Each structure stands twice: as C-alpha cells, then as structure tokens.
Sequence to fold (460 residues):
Amino acid sequence: MPLINKARKHNAVPGRRNHHNRDDADLSRLRTALTVFFALDGFVFAGWVVRIPAVKEQTGASASALGLALLGVSAGAVVTMMLTGRLCRRYGSHPVTVVCGVLLSLSIALPPLTHSALALGAVLLVFGAAYGGINVAFNSAAVDLVAALRRPIMPSFHAAFSLGGMVGAGLGGLVAGSLSPTQHLLGLTVIGLLVTAGAGRVLLRCPVPVPPDTAAGTDTAAGTGTAAGEGAPRRPDARTRRPDVRTRRLVVVFGLIALCTAYGEGALADWGALHLEQDLGAHPGVAAAGYTCFALAMTIGRLTGTRLLERLGLSRTVVAGGTMAAAGMLLGSLSPSVWAALLGFAVAGLGLANLFPVAVERAGALAGPSGVATASTLGYGGMLLGPPAIGFMADWFSLSTALTSVAALAAVAAAIGYGTRRVTGTDSGTGDAADGGADGNSGARSGSGASNGADGVRDT
Fold:
C-alpha cells in the first residue's frame, strides 16, 4: 500500500509541474502583450505631438484657437476614463484594451484631414477618448497581472510607454521633412492596427489572471478545474464588487499622488526649455535638452523600478521618490547654472519615475478598474493643471519661482506616501520588504491582489 501511494504521488508531480509551467507561459505572454500595448500608446501619441506645428499651419489656426482645439484631447480622455472603468468591470479589461487600441490607431489619422480649428477640436475629442480609454483598460489589465505575479512590475509597463514615446518622437522628427502629416499619421494608423492585431490576439486568448490566494478557493483535487467545494465561500473581488466609502477615499488619496506626479511632467514638458533659455540664457539646443534629460531619467527610473520596489517597498519608494523629485526641482528651478539645472531636471525625473505607476497600481488593487479610472483621471487632471498654473504664477512672480510648485507637489506626494505607509505596508500585493517583513514577498504573504487589497484596508 505505501508503494502504491508513493507511485501515485510520484506520477502526480509531473502533471502539476506541467500545469504550473503552462500558467507561467500564459502570464509571460500576457505580460509581453500588455507591454506592447503600453509602448504602442506612447509611440502613437508622440507621433501626433511632433506633427502639431504642421497641423496648425495646415488648419490656419491661431495660437489661441489651437490651444482650444488641443483641449479636445484632454476633454475626450477625462470624459472617457470613468466610462472605461465601468466597461472594464462589465466586459473585462482585455477586450476593452483591444477595442480602444483599434480606435486609437484609426483616430490618429484624422487630425491632418481637418482644415479648421473647430474640425480639429472635434476629431481630437475622438482621439482623446480612445487615448483615455486605452490607458484605463491596459492599466486595469496590468493591475490584475501584478496581483497574480505578486511582483511590483507596474513600472516596467510605464517604462515601455516612455520608450515608445521616445521612439515615436524620434521617428517623427526623421520623417517630418519627407512625409506630410497625412502620410505620417496614416502610417501610424497602419502600424497601430498591425500591432493591435498581433498583441490583441494574444491578449484575447489569455484569461484574466487570478491572484493565488483567490484561486485557492477553487483548488482542483484531480486537475479537473472544478471547485473543491460547491458552495465554498469566496473572497470578494475588487474587479467586480463596488468599493466601500473608505476604499474610495483611499483611491482618491493615491490618485492625488498621480496628480502631483503628472503636474510635474506637464510643467517640465511645456516650461522647462523656456526656463533654461529665458532665465539662464542657455542656447536653444541646450534648452531643448532639458526635457530630454528629464524624460530619459524617468525612463531609466521606470526600467529599474521593479527592483527598487522589491528592495524598498511601496511606501519607502514613494517617500524617497517624492523627496528626490522635490530636491531635484529646487535645484533645477533656482540654480543659476544651466548644467546644474539640467542635473536637477534629471534628478526630478528619477524621483517622479515610479510614483504614477505605484499610485495607479494601488488604486486598481483597492477598487479594480474604477480605481484605475479615478487615479488616471486625477493624474491626467494634474497634467492639464500644470502648464496653465505655471503660466499664471510666472506672470505673478517669475518662471523660476513658479517651477518650485513642482517641488512642492512632489513633497506632498512624499508626505502622502508616508501617511499611507500602513496601507501599502500591510496590504501590498507586490511585496513591501522594507515595511512589511524581511523579504520582498512579505507584503504578498500578508495580503495580495485586487481582492484582499481592499479587504485589508478595512482591517487597518
């Protein structure tokens, strides 16, 4: 009898190993597909941005009329983000990501077909809706994957977005002299549809990953896929249930971190070069390198973000990042030296790099797609708020003084991270080594994923 049991145990191991290998392969394919969608989003958006001057000339719009037309992107994104959260909750984030990928690819070809500021604003409304929708959808899918893997890989997805944007901007600059805006953006449509067809096929075939602790309630005794108990209780899943009041408040808190981060990105994108040239007398070419230093440093920070989160944990990463960004922006805005200012911009980019991904991941872990939508909307609002706020403050005081507001909001993000350290330390599905235990998986053992992230909050 012992020999029979031993033989059965021996024969059962390969099946389990093959099952785990198959699951790991599915998760790996899902991660690759999502990474491609993040990169595509950055690539397409950057391609549009570099052709804005040519489209302005084609439409004959004044600076003020162009500014109003460009608000169509923002308005479409903000309006669609909350709606996309509901669609993801109902239909799933994978199909919604693919549909939004198609819409984004098609809508990028529309701006150069317009011949007035009003028509441009209308088509940018459509483009902004697709852009906002895909951002919520693939971030929601990424939150589910982070919970299943129990590793803080969210920064790697946002690094793909940054890299895609750098490639899209570089390519746009290369072809600007030889291709018209219509030809260039139509080419982006073709590329986008091809990429969406390839990555979308993988995404639609991959099931939504289930966190290990959630899957425990459906353990299969004989590998048949049936639940261990017909009426076994299940923990509520943040992807489908409505969050309670306290959870919604925490989602807003993490959304404020996203807002503080995006405020800095928008401010530096629009005002960084002007500060270097106007206030510090930098050559136009050197001034243009200011945002490049910031963006490159942010990309590097996101590429190393997973390892940083595993070593420091969520709360310490937010506190350290916000503090570093605040110090960098004080140097960048108040230093009388151009090179010190460039160094400050780079330090600020490193500090801000992982704050937005962490904020979105935490909001999604607490409240599912609606949490991602709320944090993304607040973050996008910060990016919209930054440039005009800096402009008004520059008129009242000076541009260098106005840019210190970026440092102030980065410090606010650090303070929020410190204030929410108990939540991120005990409820993190990504492992808060510094705050929750001796190793990078301690936080995962104490509570993981989209389901018990919110449950743990109620227990604190």
Observations:
- Confidence is low (pLDDT under 50) at residues 3-13, 215-236, 426-460.
- The longest helix spans residues 2-49.
- Residues 37 and 247 are 29 Å apart (CA to CA).
- The two ends are 50 Å apart (CA to CA).
